Every structure is written in C-alpha cells, then in structure tokens.
C-alpha cells in the first residue's frame, strides 16, 4: 500500500506561489496540494495588467494557469477565499469562512498591497491602487465616465497605469514627489529622456509635488499639494509603492519585520511554514520584481522536493519597462560615485542612452534607454560580477577594438552555460529549453512556452528562446512543424479557410465552435483574422462583426495617445480642390483641430478631434473616409504626370485617382499602398509600395511587394502592359490573389517572399482565364462595400454608443 502523501497548502494564488508549485511538479515532489486565492480568478500574469489596461490584451490573454491546469495536476483550488490564520499546534490553516485545512508543509505567498497615502480624502470614491484585476477593471470603467485622472507615483507601476489611462482617452497627470522618474532604477539622464518621451505620448507631469489632500465630497475631485496648488482629477490611482501583505503572518505569531522574515531556504520562524514572493523579507530585503521571486521559488521547490540545492543568496535586481515603444532597462548600481568608472554613450537623435558602471574594473551596474538589445547580456555580466575586457566592451558598446565602430556581435547562445537563466520571470535555464527540444521533439516557441514557461510572462526572452531553438535544430529549424494562427487553434490559415468553405461556416463563433477552438471566444489575434477570412469568402452575405475588429476600425478613426482622434478624408490620387480645402479649414477651426498634417500619402490628417466631435466632423466635411485606420487601401500616391510635367509620358494623376476610387474600402489582409508615376523618374516612389506603377512611352510597368516601413523592401518588377485596361486587370488580379492567399496582417512584402514572385506571375500572367476570374471576384466583392462614415452617421444607435456617451 502506497504511503499517504504529505499535504502542501499554498496560501496565495499569485505568480510567486504558483511558480513554486510548478517547479515542485516538474521535480516530482509528491504532495497533495491545496491552493487558496483571495481573488476570484485562477493564476494570472500580474506583469501584463498594464497591457490589459491599454487594450492590447484581455483578461483571458493573461491567465497563466486556467482551471483545467489545477484539475489536471490534482490541485484543490479555493478562489475568493482568504486564509486568516495558521494554527501551529493543530497544523491547520483557517479561512475567513471558517474552513480548516490540515497541512504538513505550508507556503505563504500573499504578495503585497498598494500603499495608499495616509492623507485626508484617500478613502473617497474614485481612488484606487494598481495591483490586481479589480483595480484594472475600475480604471477601465472610470475611463468610460470621466475625463481627468491623476496617477500619484512616478515609478514603474505608476507610469504603466498613466499610459494605459491615456490610451483609454483620459487626460492624465503623473504626480511625483521627486524631480526624477523611476529614481530607484534610473539615473537622471535616463529619467529625463523617459519623461520627454512619455510627454510626447500624451502623459502630463507634476514633478516635485507632495500630495497633502484629496479634495471632493464622496467622490474625489482633485489633489491639493503642499505648496498650496491644486490639480483637478475625477479619478486617482495611487502608485507610490507597495507594502508586503504580512497580516496573516502577524496574526499567526510568525516573525515579521517589513516582510515575513525567512532564512536562505525560505523558512519562516514557524516550523514547516515557508514564504516566497513580495510578502517575504530575506536578509533585510523585500523584492517587488518578479525575477527574484521566481529565484526564491526555485530554491524552495528543490528544498521541498528533497533535491540538493544551495540556499537563496539574494538577487541582482533588474528593471525593464516597455510601454508603447518606450524601452528602459537597469540592473545593479546605476548612480555613479567617485569610486565608479563610467562608460556611457548618448544619441539624442535616435533617443538612445547606454551607461555601464565599473568598480575596480568589475561590472556592477547598467542603464539602457531606447535600445535594450543588450539587456540580457548586461544583466548576466552584473550578476556574475564580470571584469570588463576589450572583448566585452566591443560586444556591449558596439565598437571594434581599433575604434572603428563595427557592428555589435551580441552574445552567442552556443557560448551560454547550461545553467544560465534565459527566462528571468520564470527561472527557465538554457538547459531546460534544450532538454524540452531534444527530449520532446519540440520545434516551436509555443511548445517550449507550454512545457517550460519561458516567454510566458513579459516575453522579453523570446528572441533568445528562438535562437536556442535554431541552435538545437540546426538546418531542420526552417522545416519545423507548422503553428496555428494563434494558441487557440492548431489550424493554419489555409486549413481554416478550407474548413469555412467546406462546412459553410458563417460566423466567427460558428468557426470556433465547429473547429474546436481551445478558447471558446478566441483571442485578440484570431478573432479579427477569422472575421476577415469570412468576409473574403462571403463578400455578399457576411455581416461584419465589429467586436472582432481592432479599436481604430470599430471607431472608423485613429485614436491618438491623448485620447483624441485623427480624421483623414479621402483625396483621390493626392488631388483635391480649393472647395474641399476650404471645407477642411472651416471644419478644423470650428472643432479646434490641433494639427492639420500633410502626410507622405498626399492627403491631410486632421489630428486632435475630440471623441464626441468625430461624427460631426465627418458630417460637415461630407467627404469619404480615407481609411487611415483599416486593413485596406490607404492611398495611391501620384506625381503630376503628363498633365503638367514636361517629362511625363502617362496621366499618373488620372490613373491614380481612378485606382483609388476603384479599390477603396475593400478589406485586405493588411494595409495596402499604391503609387503611380508618369515617367521612370519615380517621383511618387513606386519602388516602396505594395503595388507600384511606372509609366513609359509604351505603356505601364508594374512592381509588387515593396515596403518602406519597419522592414523596408524594394518592390519586384512584375510585368509590363500596354493599355490602361490591362493595367487595371493586372492590379485587380494581384490584389485579389493576395486577399485570397495572404495571412491576416501579412504585408505584400512578406507575402511575395513567402509565395514566390514566379509563382504569383504564373497565376496572374500565365493564364488569361485565371487573371480574368480573379478580377471578376474582386469586382464582385467591391460591389458590396460602402463608406463607413456615412453608414455610421445613418446608424444613430451605433453613433451614440461609440461617440456620444455623456461625459461626467
């Protein structure tokens, strides 16, 4: 008869505690496990709350271990239940509902609470912290009802909260006691660069301000500072710090200083009771970042599983901030003193900054801003106390030994030690990833993530994981197993399209149900894709599902950093009239448009339109939408051509306007840009467009697959035609073939390389019948489209719901 397994109780269902349990399961620790969590959710990624707030992820997207995981591992989970006392004599944990659960070993992982400033008014309605899903929900609701917000605290959490609220359309001011943001992680130079960048993104700042009172009656209306000045605010987020949640330990008689005091094996003063995470104090230090908490968890998991392990000796703290294009990193010491040697480089044009601190030639700290590609390497060097050498200097500073400014080499994964941590958030080593590939035959990052946890938290280690995958698989890496369009399904784009057609599926919900999606509602990645595929297959019958669209497409306008919108009227071929220009000027003045911008696509952006004014601007402009927000044709750029230019051989303006009128409003896999030149001088830059057209004495030359964006690509020469009719037919066929075979969000530059130029030429140019059939299918689809602005203006319910909610 098998011996009865010991009972392990985890108090706290957060990342540190559940991370420890995951390690115990991997090590084969034989326990009957019970988990208590005060929140009503399964284990989720607290690091990603800022992404939920800014709208790029949902709550479902950040769940780390769903309810099925607990069941699969025979773990008893009690959500919405708080443990209030540990009884040492009876070896039981007691909950707020009176439940008593016996334990042989117990782990306290109660985390921390937001520190709420003890100032008058701090308990008013509209004042929250930023620690959990409930706080995130409160912010999302506040953004629907209120306009002005203040975030007290210029640290990591405060800045993430502020940027999230700005993205939700609120007017946000960060209030900070000191003159430097993130002063515990950044030096003054990096702090000032960070503040300047966030200011550009719409965040306001009140620096050097001490809050002494929150004003208002039942609900907060503003902040009063020690200098007597005030700041209006209908919503306040307290992000001035965290305090370890030690109440349970105190009430149970466990030794507590600032946190729950533990030794190097995470043992508390009570026998068989351990503590990990933000509630824990080790050698006088409480850690508030996730990587040290997982390092603690790894030591504790080995200890509880009977695996020989050195004790926990503390962590080198590293901070990485990523919000809307702002990259900041620091590790170890960051403020120089007389005993430091400083290596630094600042590029104001590229907005990058790098500083490395040495003490007796040992690397003891680093700060990066704007470019954090060396963050993993520098963190390792700081942690290991590595001595600076010429070779290391060249690698991290991007210069050659002779000062020639050579390219950065970067750290090779081949040279990494087996026990080197790749994923700091989850404590995953290089060896764990290599073993996952060699022992299980894994070929994708998603498989490695599911097995080891690497990339599951912040995702910053994904490039290194991919490099290890490529290193282990070698030449077979390119032939690795296919991946589904997202983690919700193993099906590829082509398989989904085939199943929709074969089974006659008509809605995203139907697709996800019939094709057995892992997530019944899908995710933010697959919902828009499936909605596009349905519209492409059934252009005449598919009812567009707005809830599956990205926010700009739902609003038919581009939301900006400060919560206002950009309205872009269509200007066919970049040509307008004095009457239209006057109308644009009049409307811009009437509705206090902040900026009227001439774009690279030869049209005018009206930037800074208030949300409630957007439909009025559409109505009074009485011009069609320029689709600056959509996965469709944006612009057709033209030169003046034969109408005016002495070198022009073809009417580029006329052709550009005609093509823009023809293809506007049609959904495509990604945004689409065209250009038409009247002669080979290429003034309209056809070489960097999805379809570029160049006129000559004998007709037109067509180029496809160009891109001038993040991944620049010169377009490939596709064909030459003699007549305007042939040109239109070729363009129609290429666009429709792209629509029918492109992956969602795949630009033509990637599509051409994936499909092969010769293959596309064979399909479009190799058969007149094929080309005409493709052109006929796009004409049929084009017959179904309509202008979204007019449609919205005619739909009062939708217009009211999206734009006319009462502002309190």
From TrEMBL:
Occurrences of domain Nitrite/sulphite reductase 4Fe-4S (ranges): 630-765
- Give the UniProt family note: Belongs to the nitrite and sulfite reductase 4Fe-4S domain family.
User: Domain FAD/NAD(P)-binding: where?
Assistant: 7-281
InterPro entries given in the database record: BFD-like_2Fe2S-bd_dom (IPR007419), BFD-like_2Fe2S-bd_dom_sf (IPR041854), FAD/NAD-bd_sf (IPR036188), FAD/NAD-binding_dom (IPR023753), FAD/NAD-linked_Rdtase_dimer_sf (IPR016156), NasD-like (IPR052034), NiRdtase/SiRdtase_haem-b_fer (IPR005117), Nit/Sulf_reduc_fer-like_dom_sf (IPR036136)
Coiled-coil regions listed in the entry: none
> Which species is the source of this protein?
Paenibacillus tritici
Give the required cofactors. [4Fe-4S] cluster; [2Fe-2S] cluster; siroheme; FAD
Its keywords, alphabetically, are: 2Fe-2S, 4Fe-4S, FAD, Flavoprotein, Heme, Iron, Iron-sulfur, Metal-binding, Nitrate assimilation, Oxidoreductase
Q: Is the Metal-binding keyword given for this protein? A: yes
Q: What is the lineage of its organism?
A: Bacteria, Bacillati, Bacillota, Bacilli, Bacillales
Q: Which residues form the Nitrite/Sulfite reductase ferredoxin-like domain?
A: 560-622
Which pathway does it take part in?
Nitrogen metabolism; nitrate reduction (assimilation)
NADH-rubredoxin oxidoreductase C-terminal domain location is 318-386
Give the matching Pfam families.
Answer: Fer2_BFD, NIR_SIR, NIR_SIR_ferr, Pyr_redox_2, Rubredoxin_C
Q: What is this protein called?
A: NAD(P)/FAD-dependent oxidoreductase
User: Where in the numbering of this chain does the BFD-like [2Fe-2S]-binding domain appear?
Assistant: 421-470, 485-534
């Amino acid at each position: 008869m098998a011996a009865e397994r010991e009972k392990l109780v985890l108090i706290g269902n957060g990342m540190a505690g559940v991370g420890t349990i995951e390690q115990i399961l991997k090590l084969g620790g034989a326990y009957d496990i019970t988990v208590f969590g005060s929140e009503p959710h399964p284990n989720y990624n607290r690091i990603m709350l800022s992404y939920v707030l800014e709208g790029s992820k949902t709550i479902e997207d950040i769940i780390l271990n769903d309810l099925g995981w607990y069941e699969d591992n025979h773990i008893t989970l009690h959500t919405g239940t708080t443990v209030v006392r540990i009884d040492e004599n009876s070896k039981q944990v007691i909950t707020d509902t009176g439940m008593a659960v016996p334990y042989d070993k117990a782990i306290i992982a109660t985390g921390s609470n937001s520190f709420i400033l003890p100032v008058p008014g701090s308990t008013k309605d509209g004042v929250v912290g930023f620690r959990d899903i409930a706080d995130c929900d409160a912010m999302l609701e506040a953004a629907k009802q209120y306009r002005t917000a203040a975030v007290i605290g210029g640290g990591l959490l405060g800045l993430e909260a502020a940027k999230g609220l700005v993205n939700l359309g609120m007017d946000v001011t960060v209030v900070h006691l000191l003159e430097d943001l993130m002063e515990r992680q950044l030096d003054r130079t990096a702090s000032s660069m960070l503040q300047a960048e966030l200011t550009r993104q719409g965040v306001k700042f009140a620096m050097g301000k001490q809050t002494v009172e929150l004003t208002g009656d039942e609900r907060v209306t503003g902040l009063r500072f020690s200098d007597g000045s005030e700041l209006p605010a209908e919503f306040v987020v307290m992000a001035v710090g965290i305090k370890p949640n030690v109440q349970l330990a105190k009430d149970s008689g466990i030794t507590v200083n600032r946190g729950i005091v533990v030794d190097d094996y995470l043992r508390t003063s009570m026998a068989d009771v351990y503590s990990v995470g933000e509630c824990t104090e080790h050698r006088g230090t409480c850690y508030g970042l996730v990587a040290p908490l997982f390092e603690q968890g790894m030591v504790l998991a080995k200890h509880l599983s009977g695996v020989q392990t050195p004790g926990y000796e503390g962590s080198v703290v590293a901070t990485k901030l990523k919000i809307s294009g702002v990259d900041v990193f620091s590790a170890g010491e960051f403020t120089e003193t007389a005993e430091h040697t400083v290596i630094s480089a600042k590029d104001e044009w590229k907005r990058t900054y790098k500083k490395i601190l040495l003490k007796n030639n040992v690397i003891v700290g680093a700060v990066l801003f704007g470019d954090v590609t060396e963050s993993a390497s520098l963190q390792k060097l700081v942690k290991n106390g590595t001595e600076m050498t010429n070779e290391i200097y060249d690698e991290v500073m991007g210069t050659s030994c002779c000062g020639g400014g050579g390219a950065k080499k970067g750290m090779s994964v081949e040279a990494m030690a087996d026990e080197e941590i790749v994923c700091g958030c989850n404590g995953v080593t290089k060896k764990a990833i290599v073993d996952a590939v060699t022992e299980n035959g894994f070929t994708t990052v998603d498989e490695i993530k599911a097995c080891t946890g690497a990339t599951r938290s912040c995702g910053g280690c994904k490039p290194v994981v991919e490099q290890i995958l490529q290193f282990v698989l070698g030449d077979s890496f390119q032939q690795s197993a296919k991946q589904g369009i997202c983690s919700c399904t193993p099906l590829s784009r082509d398989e989904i399209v085939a199943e929709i057609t074969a089974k006659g599926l008509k809605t995203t919900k139907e697709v996800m149900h019939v094709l057995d999606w892992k997530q019944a509602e899908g995710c933010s990645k697959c919902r828009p894709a499936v909605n596009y595929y349905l519209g492409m297959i059934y252009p005449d019958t598919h009812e567009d599902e707005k809830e599956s669209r990205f926010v700009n497409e739902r609003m038919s306008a581009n939301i900006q950093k400060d919560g206002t919108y950009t309205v872009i009227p269509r200007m066919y071929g970049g040509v307008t009239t004095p009457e239209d220009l006057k109308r644009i000027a009049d409307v811009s003045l009437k509705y206090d448009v902040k900026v009227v911008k001439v774009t690279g696509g030869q049209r005018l952006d009206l930037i800074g339109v208030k949300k409630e004014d957007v439909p009025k601007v559409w109505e009074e402009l009485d011009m069609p939408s320029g689709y600056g927000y959509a996965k469709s044709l944006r612009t057709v750029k033209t030169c003046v051509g034969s109408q005016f230019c002495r070198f022009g051989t073809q009417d580029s303006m006329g052709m550009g306007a005609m093509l823009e009128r023809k293809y506007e409003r049609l959904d495509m896999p990604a945004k689409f840009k065209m250009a038409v030149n009247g002669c080979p001088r290429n003034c309209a830059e056809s070489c960097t467009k999805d379809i570029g057209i160049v006129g000559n004495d004998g007709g037109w030359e067509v180029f496809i697959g160009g891109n001038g964006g993040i991944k620049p690509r010169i377009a490939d020469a596709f064909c030459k035609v003699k007549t305007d009719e042939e040109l239109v037919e070729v363009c129609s066929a290429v666009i429709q073939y792209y629509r029918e075979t492109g992956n969602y969000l795949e630009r033509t530059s990637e599509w051409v390389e994936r499909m092969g130029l010769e293959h596309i030429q064979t399909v479009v140019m190799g058969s007149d019948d094929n080309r005409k059939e493709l052109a006929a299918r796009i004409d049929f689809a084009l017959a179904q489209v309509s202008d979204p602005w007019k449609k919205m203006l005619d739909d009062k319910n939708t217009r009211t719901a999206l734009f006319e909610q009462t502002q309190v």
